[in-house]
Amino acid sequence: MTETSSGSVARGGKRPRKGLKMKRIFTTPGVHPYDEIAWERRDVVMTNWRDGSINFEQRGVEFPEFWSVNAANIVTTKYFRGAVGTPQREWSLKQLVDRVVGVYTRTGLEHGYFASEEDAEIFDHELKHALVHQVFAFNSPVWFNVGTQSPQQVSACFILSVDDQMESILEWYKEEGVIFKGGSGSGVNLSRIRSSKELLSSGGTASGPVSFMRGADASAGTIKSGGATRRAAKMVVLDVDHPDIEEFIETKAREEDKVRALRDAGFDMDLGGKDIVSVQYQNANNSVRVSEEFMRAVGKGDAFGLRARLTGEVIETVDARELFRKMAKAAWECADPGVQYDDTINDWHTTPETGRITASNPCSEYVHLDNSSCNLASINLLKFLNDDNSFDIAGFVKLTELIITAMDISITFADFPTEKIGETTRAYRQLGIGYANLGALLMATGHAYDSDGGRAVAGAITSLMTGVSYRRSAELAGVVGPYDGYARNAEPHKRVMRKHAAANDDLRTVGTVDAQIHAEATRQWTECLKTGEKNGYRNAQASLLAPTGTIGLMMDCDTTGIEPDLALVKFKKLVGGGSMQIVNQTIPRALRQLHYQQEQIEAIVEYIAEHGHVVDAPSLRPEHYEVFDCAMGERAIAPMGHVRMMAAAQPFLSGAISKTVNLPESATIDDIEQVYMEGWKLGLKALAVYRDNCKVGQPLSVGGTKSESKTAEAEPEPEVKVIEVNRPTRRRMPNQRPSTTTRFTVGGAKGYMTASSYPDDGLGEVFLKMSKQGSTLAGVMDAFSVAISIGLQYGVPLETYMSKFVNMRFEPAGMTDDPDIRMATSVMDYIFRRLALDHLPYDERAALGIFSMAERAAQQRGEDPSALQESVDREALAQSAPIEERPKPEAVKELTLESHQRFTADAPLCMTCGTKMRPAGSCYVCEGCGSTSGCS
């Protein structure tokens, strides 16, 4: 435990003051933490996803041996400062960590945080050890800015405000632009703006907030965050009693209809296409701020009043259930809007005397005062799992103390994008400590994510983290004083502390691990209340759960934030380039925890590697299947499982949780209503949903995927088909046969495919060319073509090849120039999809989830795609036409399916490297380069 004592540091030299007495956690006196690590030199070379050219190269960078290739690549490309190739360029993780920690240590010493220089040195060593060992990480702005010539911006999350005045609205546009330029995101509530149903002082009718959203959206779409390639991240909130609420709810759903119409008319709706700019409201997440009054009216079926902004009088009455239904319907159609539970948020508000909480950051985890910001840091939970699967409680407590101390110091030296944000943040000192790898921790300890045991562990850890954080905040208040706004908010702040402690008392444990953590959490909350009563608190906010996108990759985390694992099989980058498919390393540990023998573990892991799931794995007991449930796949966690996990953690968080509740494509509007209603009843602060395939322009659906899986499982192997005759015979192709040549591009790699058919019927020959004659690739493709052609001539059905090669994943992968197949996970994936479209009837392709552009358009219109009378010859002719004469590709936010791993359907391509991004909370992260679509 860190103590406070009188030290030699004096304020203005007038009187001695207290300072923190630091104790070592991980380090050894007299030994620098770097000297306890084995370091190695590596080369980081990043290639362009389109043409294979090198777009980043730095050789001889230095990292610990245990850092993965991916983590080292991301830190080198994103966080090292200085021009590449110059002496000023950072080349070692030591330099990066020294640059950042040096500023923290010097500032803490100068401002009286430490009792002595020796304590400052301990702080310095402990922080460096934790960072280089990937035990925790600060959010990205810290790594970008601290210790450089740039403004020392440390916050990733911002909340703005806008009033019902044109000057304020224009100032909102400007402030957002400044924040986006700095690489961060912001949120705003537009409910103060008069509705389009109210009058102006001049006598005219007001434009309403939705009209002003258009201007802000256009501004955000033109500003690339940090001067790089990632688009701006923003949140727009509107209160449920605003007279324009229905228009707000339906904005993005209407735009989806526009995308469909323009795409079907042949306009360029590709990502970055010249016509996509006509689609509005796409740069923001939208959320409706619902009240207790409204939710109760929904439950009772009562009427609900929409109120004028200036007078507060009811100017329109609506059916609460119908309005709630419209919210759920819009979310069912396009995943927006989400909901924020206003009364719950403000019931846990520590500073209500200063103002209400009206908005959030783009990912919804930071909810506090207008014109404020929050800097984030996340703990890697898996680092505290001991070899015997016990949780290192003492180490976790001490690390949390260290992080809170460092984060508060950062506010002292930080710069801010606007003066208003700077004033509020310095006065209230909001922090956002959180964690990552919860899903991996639960699996490793044999807990199902959707189980009482899993929720008990999550609740206990979260309670302990926040209890320690506020106890340390109270200790800091005794050293350097409480936050400026504490005096006027002392009673409500202490009331919220008591609410957290009471929630901890109500937590019910079910196992040894969570019981031990809970016991320590109870002790910490008791100490927190006692110390806070004496000293007050240094921080108005302490904790939240962020998506941990880029920093999660930096820490080599298997799972982000509060999320479960995405899939059981992943792809690991290798030194020197390339990647390999691996089974999650957490699985063998979980199996050992469940008392399986080594031979059984090896067999189960081998089965998972082949099938991507645990169903029917040898020796694995069905009652243990749930331990290996993931966000997606054969045994996807039920939507309410996600909601219940959020509810387990929420009472112990100052802020909210960045997380999207995924629903299957078959989910109904009623299902989304239930999720929104249960989120309110369970005490969540914010909630967003995503229904699989709800976005426009997705060639495959979950239903198609399941059909494909069943088809593949039920399809006999080629050998089984062959033995139906005693001696298979080869049906050779005639000298003259009809053929189609298709020129294609997959992820920037160009190639040609010639497919020849028998004169009567059926594909019999395929030839592929992707490189110069004599090259290794050309030889491999020739050999592959011969093998496929001979198989076809011996009677192997084309659909058998489909089941084996469709969704195969390797580079090059990504966008294609084929309007029917806009995304491909590999060249093989594209080739066999194209062959299926050209040579298989609709019914057989539908079972595999393979449709042409015209068939997808028919589905969107509610028509029967099988009724389309497009012949194979006409489709082949369209494909053989020059590229410039083909229909334009559609929007690229699509569902890409891997053989053992599926990403969320709406996950966009990374604008930096072209890789399909994956979910991270309610945002997305690129595993290739670490770019995110929100907080990092």
TrEMBL record:
Function: Catalyzes the reduction of ribonucleotides to deoxyribonucleotides. May function to provide a pool of deoxyribonucleotide precursors for DNA repair during oxygen limitation and/or for immediate growth after restoration of oxygen.
Region (Disordered) residue spans: 861-890
Catalysed reactions, as listed in the record: a 2'-deoxyribonucleoside 5'-diphosphate + [thioredoxin]-disulfide + H2O = a ribonucleoside 5'-diphosphate + [thioredoxin]-dithiol
Domain (TSCPD): residue spans on this chain: 734-837
Keywords: Cobalamin, Cobalt, Disulfide bond, DNA synthesis, Nucleotide-binding, Oxidoreductase
Keyword Transmembrane helix: no
Gene3D superfamilies cross-referenced by the UniProt entry: 3.20.70.20
All residue ranges annotated as the Ribonucleotide reductase large subunit C-terminal domain in the record: 155-690
Protein name per UniProt: Vitamin B12-dependent ribonucleotide reductase
Annotated Ribonucleotide reductase class II vitamin B12-dependent N-terminal domain residues: 44-134
Lineage of producing organism: Bacteria, Bacillati, Actinomycetota, Actinomycetes, Streptosporangiales
Enzyme Commission designation: 1.17.4.1
GO MF entries: cobalamin binding; cobalt ion binding; nucleotide binding; ribonucleoside-diphosphate reductase activity, thioredoxin disulfide as acceptor
Example GO biological process: DNA biosynthetic process
Family in the record: Belongs to the ribonucleoside diphosphate reductase class-2 family.
Cofactors (names): adenosylcob(III)alamin
Matching InterPro entries: RdRp_reductase_class-2, RNR_2_N, RNR_lg_C, RNR_NrdJ/NrdZ, TSCPD_dom
Keyword set includes Metal-binding: no
